[in-house]
Amino acid sequence: MLTFGKTPTYQSGSKPELAVSDDKRALTLTFSDLKVTVGSSKSPAPVSTQLFSFVLPLEGDDKRAEIEFIVQGFVLTTEGATASMVCSVNGQTIVADFPGNSEQSLTQKLKFAAKTPSDCRLSVMLLVGRDSKNANAEAHLNVSAIDAEILPRVE
């Protein structure tokens, strides 16, 4: 049976709280500072990015792995601003783009599948930008949590 390893072998960017289930088949990363902002007095720059990378070993002798990742957060953009989130696990990637005038909670799912991977290499890139000619344009994008579970679920 495939399980997550106990500790990450690499981590960059934000420092999340890591909680692994007792059976080591599910985990949650909780973030307090995985966010980007442009506009307002907090960030007058026209573009802002942040990258988080995390590598966690997989243990077990299964011939195939399927893991579902669910990324949760919030996006707010005004007219003249945009936001994008890129999530990648071992080269399998999803992209979510948010136009101006977006204000919503976000939930993005990525199902990763591969033959006998030795680890999960998770990367999340956040990008916000604003039109330089629109002094009032603002954007905020954050990730609050990432849940991962090895499939199939064990009952």
Tell me what the structure shows.
- It is a single chain.
- With 155 residues, the chain is mostly beta strands.
- The protein has one domain: Jelly Rolls.
- 0% of the residues lie in helices and 65% in strands.
- Strands 1, 2, 6, 8, 9 and 11 form a six-stranded antiparallel β-sheet that branches. Strands 3, 4, 5, 7, 10 and 12 form a six-stranded antiparallel β-sheet that branches.
- The protein contains no helices and twelve strands.
- The protein is elongated and about 55 Å long.
- The model has no long low-confidence stretch (mean pLDDT 94).
- A hairpin with a 2-residue loop joins β8 (81-89) and β9.
- The chain has strands spanning 3-4, 10-12, 17-20, 26-30, 35-38, 47-59, 64-77, 81-89, 92-98, 102-115, 119-130, 139-151.
- The two termini are 14 Å apart.
CATH architecture tag: Sandwich
Number of helix segments? 0
Quaternary structure classification: single chain
- Quickly give the structural class: mainly beta
Poorly predicted regions: none
Care to count the β-strands?
Answer: 12
Major β-sheet profile: 6 strands, antiparallel
Average per-residue pLDDT, rounded, comes to: 94
CA-atom Rg in angstroms: 17 Å
Instruction: Please estimate the helix content.
Output: under 10%
End-to-end separation: 14 Å
Strand content: over 45%
Number of domains: 1
Described by the principal axes of the CA atoms, the overall outline is elongated
